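Lesson 9: reading folded outputs for more than one chain in a single document. The general rule is that every protein is listed as its sequence immediately followed by its structure tokens, and records are never interleaved. Here is the first one.
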Amino acid sequence: MATALSACETRRTIATEEAITASTGADQSGSRDTILVIRGNTSAVKELKKFKDWVNQKASKVDSATNENLPEIQAEFKRKTAHLEKGLDSLSKDAKAEYLEAKAKYKAWEAQNKERTSKPLQAAEIKKRQKQLLGEYQNLNKINATNVREAYLVFMGMVRAKKRNWDQNDWDYTDYVYRQLNDRKQEITTSISASDELKIKSLQAEYLALEAGKDAKDLIKAVRSK
């Protein structure tokens, strides 16, 4: 469970080398994804379904190493599309439309990922967001086994209250604060009670679900705008 509770894949770097001190991760497919009964080349239909599944998996995956792996992902995309297009004529009109939609979804995901990670986070803004989101727990060094549950409750309370008005930039800074909070929790994890640990895991899961939902909505919007 702890491994799964990581932050969003499209993380941004920090604009400064200065360390940030303690004082200062619905339907993901973005389209109808029902199984169509298509007459024609059965092999091509199966390949199309595999391709759509691959695109959906990439678009929804929580993985901090996306940027490092992007060249391989791009090469795999080229291989898959080249293979599919050899049998494109054997697909029905609806299947061809689904193929084009899946390609557009991948391209939107790739562009979104590149755009977000190309803009470094600013140190001063990180400190500001840490104060807003953690309140009295902004000094992470003062978070201990006794109050770590309350720190997560404060954080999630702010996320719930403000998320409707957030853009992607807000989510990126929030994600950074979330990861810092997780790192502090990890340092004191052996002292946290079982009941607090259980509550914290549920709050982490809620946060990741909200963030993933935001990413999915952004992706759908990007695909539809093309």
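And here is the second record, again sequence then tokens.
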Amino acid sequence: MIQPANRMNRLSSSVFAELAEKKRAKVQAGQDIIDLSIGSPDLPPPQSVRDILSKEVQHADQYGYALQETEDFQTAVADYYKQQFGVSINADEVLQLIGSQDGLSHLALAYLDPGDYVIAPDPGYPIYAACASLANANLYTIPLHEENQFMPDFHRIPVEVVKKAKMMILNYPGNPTAALANKAYFEKAVAFGLEHNILIVHDFAYAELVFSQDKPLSIFHIPDAKKIAIECNSLSKSFNVAGARIGYAIGYPSYLKPLRDLKTNIDYGVFLPIQKAAAYALTYERPFLDKQRAVFKKRRDVFIRSLHENGWNVRVPEGGMFVWAKVPASYSSLSFALKALEHGVVVTPGSAFGEGGEGYVRIALVQPESSLKVAAQRLIEAVE
């Protein structure tokens, strides 16, 4: 048998796939299951976006290679950042991605050599650790603790790691922690990157799911951020087009060039009708984002209230589409997830996001309020 590359030994099998298999067995056995494991939006995109996509796919000239982003898409992203976040960027500072995970994984290949370090949060989205493995680079994880609002302390990173680090990944609103960073924290991150010549990569995929009155905070609110940072964003969670796979990276063209050069050897761009629909959404469907945010805030409130009223005092998330819930001390993350599944609810064990996630489960708010109320009651039964 031909053996796979050694780097594959460092990639764990997806816990999401394992949970999906267990869920499938339960469903086939006739059990009613509420799946709150994966952050895939259950709501549709705006009708106008679907209409444009439907119209454009009928045009015979739309099926060639896109090769790269259209000028309309770049301009739409720049306008969206100005109007939505109050951040000025130029169109040539936009690189289209096939979803933000595309950018996060391929940035490591574009920048890291064996022996280099990538610094990533723990717990963190699995691609942060996987990208180091794919690039044959070293991973150093910085722990996130609830008592510190899930903000890593840069000054606790060993000097020998800092010297060899070339990239550091941050993520706010956080997945899985649902934490938010303030401007002062981003100022520290940018200063750290500039001082040590480390590329700061901010995963901003949940930008539009912030439940306070404050505007979502891009790292580019910090004046010097463009000197050292790239921000990845996506339309998946904001406009509910996760399966269409379209996102973008923002940064100085010189920082984006290695990733652009790599992608020209890997893919041929995003399907043109999807680009057109995405550009329209960014330009004309911003009111949709307010409605979407209100839906998820209401879901959060209904679900959290149901848990709190029954004695499980989980932390109230400030943003994102997840509840990061500490499990009772008698359970591990996995054992609680399996117990929840027995009660008809699929959640993700926190250990899937790194050692720092042990003791928690991630619960995605991707069902209507009525289903979330039922799920909360079932989870309470699992806790008892």
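What the second record shows: DSSP finds twelve helices and twelve strands in the chain.
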